[in-house]
Amino acid sequence: MKSLPAILAAFAITAVIGLSMLGVGVNALFTPAAAVQTSAAAQPDNHAAQDAASADQALIEQYQEREQQYRQRLEEAVQKLKQANQQIEQANAQLRQADQTIQSYQSVMQQLQQRGLIQVDDNGQISSGRTRSASRDNDH
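The chain above was modelled as a monomer; its predicted structure follows.
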């Protein structure tokens, strides 16, 4: 039961504060002086507006300059990529040509082996087919 007076006091204090806030709000709405002060505060000083506009313009110019720098860097990067792609294409063409040359050599080597003109041992050493056959004949 002791808490009942405390709760009633809390409600009473809250009601007084709420009513006073409501009164201040109503007074602010309907007082012409407050309206004039509010509209004056909403309209900035002409000098302050010019300062803000010049600061905004300077910021815009700074961003535009930075954008131009980034565009230039991007263009340089694109050019470097194009050059790198050209170098890769040239290297690939050289590789294709080397591959064709190797295939030609392999074909010649196979034909020479088939005809018995050369022999390739397990170590990859190439010897004349006649020399081996002559040494074999001498061994027998």
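The beta strands are 118-120, 126-128.
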